């Protein structure tokens, strides 16, 4: 009887497939996720263990063994539910591919560990086409879904679903390089969706693209700015990274990170909606650093400024550099402490061009210096369109543009649907208020 039970439990043993050919459907998925190093790798298979009567629902040991044995190869997880406490991926690399596969948090074991750990100095790890479903009802808030231990390279997380997470969905740490997080669905996360944790050394080439992230307590995509409070050490930042084509909604904060050490970051074509849920406020996207480009995003229904650029922690302004905010569409910035469409603080120079801003509670564009007269050198505004239609909240003396001393506005148009706008005291030649639309 015991031998029969043991045999049933070992049905999940990895099948060392004689044929090394990747199945066509798996090959298609890997190509869509831009995983091009799979050709020629050994292909292994796993199936969910059968549950024995009166036994704990925990398949951790069996699945961990299969993953370890499949290092430097492909492990295809057959359809079904795998109940695990946690797994550690092999540092030598693995491509883990699912097919209607769900990895669920086992409720019979310690839940304080990260669900999936990517060890320090790992290379060439891919998680593709599977669901990670954790138990977010627990009061333990230390368990992340997928977490790096730092200094990893070539990590891909693609076409997964991550949900019901008691802490963070995906965690990137110091020294991580060449991560691609693409086409994932992330929802019902207590803190962050994708987070680059506080860094002692920079992270490079982090690509977060085409993900759907919603119902997140903090930020859907966050680059942590400092080691703690406002005046603490700033993070080493991210370099050469892109956040593009994501759809995020119903979050506590928006996308971004204030560290002045961020460099060469592109925030492009994202859709950001309903920010500030359950909080006193939330920016649509917030950044600090040098060569930060915020372009062609749609930002709607935020509870603080739609776009906020500042050097943070406080006192770090001179480490920031050029920024550009171009081609964005902003609608409905509601009231709280700040209700600007675009707000700039402690930034040395930048370009704000071809943005459309409608229904901002406060000034549509607000460029101020709140540390010293040398922090803001010059910001140039070109061909922005401001639509003033929040008539019941704005006074006749409300200004749509507030500029620092050395900033200029060229060709900015205000379409006043309320008939209450007054010329901007600090606007430079080229600012042209427009009559109400007929």
Structure, explained:
By secondary structure, the protein is mainly beta. The chain has two domains: 152 residues, no CATH class; 247 residues. It contains three helices and 41 strands. The strands form four sheets. The protein has a 15-stranded mixed sheet with strand order 1-2-3-6-9-12-15-18-21-24-27-30-33-36-39, sandwiched between helices. A 14-stranded parallel sheet has the order 4-7-10-13-16-19-22-25-28-31-34-37-40-41. Strands 5-8-11-14-17-20 form a six-stranded parallel sheet. The longest helix has 10 residues. It starts with a helix and ends with a strand. The N terminus and C terminus are likely disordered.
Name its key features:
438 residues, mainly beta, 14-stranded parallel β-sheet, 3 helices, disordered N terminus, disordered C terminus
Strand order of the largest sheet: 1-2-3-6-9-12-15-18-21-24-27-30-33-36-39
Q: Let me know the largest β-sheet.
A: 15 strands, mixed
Structural class by helix and strand composition: mainly beta
Q: How helical, in percent, are the residues?
A: under 10%
Number of domains: 2
Count of runs of 4 or more consecutive helical residues: 3
Note the topology.
Elements: H1 2-9, E1 15-16, H2 24-32, E2 43-46, H3 60-69, E3 74-77, E4 80-84, E5 87-88, E6 94-98, E7 101-105, E8 116-118, E9 123-128, E10 131-133, E11 146-148, E12 153-158, E13 161-165, E14 170-172, E15 177-182, E16 185-189, E17 194-196, E18 203-209, E19 212-216, E20 221-223, E21 238-244, E22 247-251, E23 255-257, E24 263-268, E25 271-275, E26 285-287, E27 290-295, E28 298-302, E29 307-310, E30 322-326, E31 329-333, E32 342-345, E33 349-353, E34 356-360, E35 365-368, E36 378-382, E37 385-388, E38 401-402, E39 408-410, E40 413-416, E41 432-434
Parallel strand pairs: 2-3, 3-6, 4-7, 5-8, 6-9, 7-10, 8-11, 9-12, 10-13, 11-14, 12-15, 13-16, 14-17, 15-18, 16-19, 17-20, 18-21, 19-22, 21-24, 22-25, 23-26, 24-27, 25-28, 26-29, 27-30, 28-31, 29-32, 30-33, 31-34, 32-35, 33-36, 34-37, 35-38, 36-39, 37-40, 40-41
Antiparallel strand pairs: 1-2
